Amino acid sequence: MSTLAQPLAPTRPSLYKTLFATCVGNALEWFDIAVYAFFASYIARTFFPTTDPSVSLLLAFGSFGISFLIRPLGAIVLGHYADKHGRKKALLLSINLMMLGGAMITLMPGYATLGLAAPLLILVARLIQGFSAGGEFGSSTAFLVEHFPERRAFIASWQFATQGASTLMASAFGFGLLQVMSDADLLAWGWRIPFAFGLLIGPLGLYIRRHVHESETYKSEVKESAPLKTLFGRQKALVFIAIGLMVISTAVNYMLNYVPTYATKSLHLSGSVGFGATLLGGVILTVVTPIMGLCAERVGRLPLMWGSLLLLLVSIYPAFHWVVGNPSAFSLMVLVGWLALLKSIYFATVPSVMADLFPVETRASGMAISYNIAVTVFGGFAPLICTLLIQATGTSLAPGYYLMAVALLSGIALLRSRKYL
């Protein structure tokens, strides 16, 4: 008697393998961003030398911000590619581009060797990284929540926990190198060490990503022939809401990256104090974010988002006022720790909320575009905006004013999002 073979049910991928495969690109992206921000003064003197150190720093942060202008283009191209051809293919492409940009920055000779070609090539490297990063968040978050929809709040929170881990690693490099190397050695070659370390992450992530598969949710969905047309035609409101949800979180994130420069230039503290404070922020972001993802599964996402947003709004000005009036290692640690804690609570819930806003057929495009517009406008230029605001107003409280303004924008978006969740 013959027995007909039954089709095998699709096997569930390993939670941890899927997490690593998707989050490694996010970690590499944010590690390079944090390292560039932390070592901005050395990069400025290497590639943007002028007679005025403030002008050199502005040029370095300007290239940091300009590279973010291409992120929305990367989001459009890679997000569209992910929605039409698969999350996996988009993730492989983005990590290859990240490694290329990172290698250029690591190995690029300075202005003394290449002249004007040096800052131009650094800008090209940052543009490559910005383009690749543009599609990373949307594709990787969609990949996560589509594999584990019942755990979406927790698993998606790891997207931002890895950002904290990246900040932690970058801070550790900054703090450690300042302790063991002279300023001359750091300027000559030491600042390149963390960038070289970042290059080691890429090949491992590339290998893991090649051995994961698409989710059944994505494979069973009817693909949109023109996901961008659908997104900008019928889902514009969702894009604006998603942008609004992101703005305070990304602004705080880049403020944390800006802390070493803020500590030395505005508060006149040592560089090691700034890196030590950012190290604390990285620990809090890494540890607290996934814990808040678990809490969101039990108490809901909106209560956590509202609580952290309101606390942030009412405490920013007093916190900055206290630090400016009492600049010390302790006060800076308290400020950074408080910002990191509130950011962790809010940030943990944002990826899964953004994923729920968009249907599967436009999810990668919608998340990538809205995320990168927010990061570009309110995050990438945050260090430059804060530097300009401090110079224009003559007060070191200016970063606090900036964070209060973007917190209000996120509050409005959170009100509007309840209609769609």
Secondary structure layout:
Elements (H helix, E strand, L loop, with lengths): L14 H24 L1 H8 L5 H14 L4 H15 L1 H21 L3 H4 L2 H31 L4 H29 L2 H8 L1 H19 L5 H5 L6 H8 L1 H30 L5 H29 L1 H25 L3 H19 L2 H8 L2 H21 L1 H12 L4 H20 L4
Short overview:
It contains 20 helices and no strands.
Attribute tags:
421 residues, mainly alpha, disordered N terminus
Task: Walk me through this protein's architecture.
The chain is mainly alpha-helical and 421 residues long. It is built from 20 helices and no strands. The protein has helices at residues 15-38, 40-47, 53-66, 71-85, 87-107, 111-114, 117-147, 152-180, 183-190, 192-210, 216-220, 227-234, 236-265, 271-299, 301-325, 329-347, 350-357, 360-380, 382-393, 398-417. The radius of gyration is 21 Å and the shape is globular.
Principal-axes geometry comes out as globular
Task: Report the span from N to C terminus.
Answer: 53 Å
User: Hey, roughly how much beta strand do the residues contain?
Assistant: under 5%
Separate helix tally: 20
Report helical residue fraction.
over 70%
What is the number of strand segments? 0
In round numbers, the mean pLDDT is 83
Contiguous uncertain segments of 5+ residues: 1-9
Q: Mind describing the biggest β-sheet?
A: none
Radius of gyration computed on alpha carbons: 21 Å
The succession of helices and strands, N to C, reads: HHHHHHHHHHHHHHHHHHHH
Class inferred from helices and paired strands: mainly alpha
